[in-house]
């Protein structure tokens, strides 16, 4: 799970566009996530029976103090927020005209604790990229076979005594991925269930030894992937 997930469930107050909190020192990531989801819901447009289009360009405008504080979280924050937007769109049956372009901007007109989402739609060709997040580090999966284990000859090496040298592999064909256990000593689980081989869905959780691996699929503009 990302660091947003553990606190998002308890969020009761819906956020629409801009808001201010009383007795707060600043905007929190979970509030941005809620505002982004509300922005998609508010701006969803039915373009056909099977397609509901939502904005893919999303800018979070913040007071300078909030912007500086949140910017220090780096790419991890933007990755989590983008993942939240993708998951909400998938659950709601929304689609994007192009890759998600999400960023933070300072706004001198905002006071600490306030935020505003500015959104728009921009069409563009996208490339789907598969990645795995392991202990705060992101690894892109190449097409074909990627071996994960504690051995130096694995494609992705994990520092985990409970993992075998070549513990598991993920095969990505550019569209779908499959995870397989490679005869490891302690086995591999997918979303809490033991496996020998299984197809991967976005945001699936793979456990090998004491290491948690989160599989994600990201949309990127063609040429930037």
From TrEMBL:
This is FHA domain-containing protein. InterPro entries: Cell_Proc_Reg/RNA_Proc, FHA_dom, FhaA_N, FhaA_N_sf, SMAD_FHA_dom_sf. It comes from the Bacteria. Gene3D superfamilies: 2.60.200.20, FhaA, phosphopeptide-binding domain (DUF3662). It comes from Agrococcus jenensis. The keyword NAD does not apply. CDD domains: FHA (cd00060). Keywords: Phosphoprotein. Signal peptide: none annotated. Residues 146-195 form the FHA domain.
